[in-house]
Amino acid sequence: GFFGIDANRKIKAWPETQLAFIKIISNIFADAFEKIQQDKEITELAFHDFLTKLPNRILFQDRAAQAIRLAERTNKTLAVIFLDLDAFKAVNNAVGHDGGDALLIKVADALTKCLRKSDAVSRFGGDEFLILLNNLTSTDDIPRIIEKLLAVFEKPFVIDGQEFFVTASAGIAVYPYDGEGPETLIKNADLAMYKAKEQGKNRFTFCTGDMKDEILMKMKLT
Which of 12, 63, 193, 202 could be cross-linked to 167 through a Cys-Cys bond (beta carbons 3.0 to 4.6 Å apart)? Predict the structure, then answer.
């Protein structure tokens, strides 16, 4: 940046004491701006995934909680999608971890582009993503949106000059039927995703009552 003071007419030369004072003021401004930038970077690291720059799980849960409060007031619903790439290890084995990271970045960008501005996508960890479908008037809209998300994987992703066809499995939990808080919705969507993989992968599955009973049983066992 630049800090300066101009005069309409020159009466006399600036004394060294005044120049020194201006330098002190400039340094104070510089330190303040540097601290603002550092705080911004710390916040970015705390709430965003380092690789994909997507919101991380902490920020996703906060946004989901806000969306739930809005849904309560507007009498609308929302859905949490737990999406996991199928056979991601095969990509890592073929092009290494750097290639796998490049694929995750491309997937994150593709998912973001096919969502509405009111929705949100987050990297949960590894090759897992969380998606928030916000402000839904009907659950009938969800399958259409999910199919649009999975269509992202119909074309190959080019990594290091090689084409990779990757599929994904997704589980869906709907508020308020499958949970009234972000953590419960994420857990139920996660279980539904595993059911989708058991059914052959490259598909989506809604959470059901039987799945929620299975979660309770697992919690008791642990």
Answer: 202
